[in-house]
Write a structure and sequence with these properties.
Blueprint lengths: L3 E7 L12 E8 L4 H6 L5 E3 L9 E5 H16 L6 H16 L4 E5 L1 H4 L6 H24 L4 H9 L1 H5 L2 E2 L10
Antiparallel strand pairs: 1-2, 1-5, 2-6, 3-4, 4-5
Helix pairs in contact: 2-3, 2-5
């Protein structure tokens, strides 16, 4: 079984007293937290209790801000991949699913990914929130502003790694309701 990052949407953030009432499945990605997941949780990012595991290894963020950032980057990446039908299909499926599963917040579950090393999982998530995710957002924002062409080219070359996650109404960890 692959270790995965799991992305959900909810109308409230998980907290010490419980998980949100309605959780919608967005995406899962094997062996990594892809750029798309980092950008989707890139606005109003905060570490929260996990909805799946005991340590606080969840990340919550503003849904609209993250979705808008990803859409803008996908539009820009697509300018260099006009003839790539597979990329166009990926963008269509991704954006349609994001529209369908809209909520107030994204909730990224990182437990399986941060547990792959001997590092403290809670500290690993703290670094994701304070360094890795803001760095990814800064790279994307610079590319959108026309100041990061080398990074944008590298993202285009390896777009499957960054954007071709499994988007579905049901993930390996799904919630009733």
């Amino acid at each position: 079984m692959a270790n995965r990052s799991y992305l959900y949407s909810a109308d409230s953030m998980p907290n010490e007293t419980g998980i949100p009432q309605r959780i919608r499945c967005i995406s899962e990605h094997n062996w990594d937290i892809p750029l798309a997941h980092k950008l989707l949780v890139g606005r109003g990012t905060t570490q929260v209790p996990s909805m799946i595991w005991n340590p606080p290894v969840g990340i919550a963020a503003d849904y609209t801000g993250g979705a808008d950032l990803l859409r803008e980057l996908l539009r820009l990446v697509g300018k260099g991949l006009e003839g790539d039908a597979e990329f166009a299909d990926c963008v269509t499926r991704t954006t349609a699913h994001l529209d369908k599963q809209r909520a107030e917040y994204f909730v990224l579950e990182t437990g399986e990914i941060v547990s792959m090393t001997d590092d403290d999982p809670v500290e690993s998530v703290r670094r994701l929130v304070s360094e890795d995710i803001p760095d990814a957002v800064a790279e994307a924002e610079a590319a959108i502003a026309g100041r990061n062409d080398d990074w944008l080219t590298s993202v285009r070359v390896d777009w499957q790694k960054h954007f071709a996650s499994f988007y579905s109404d049901a993930l390996y960890f799904s919630f009733p309701g």
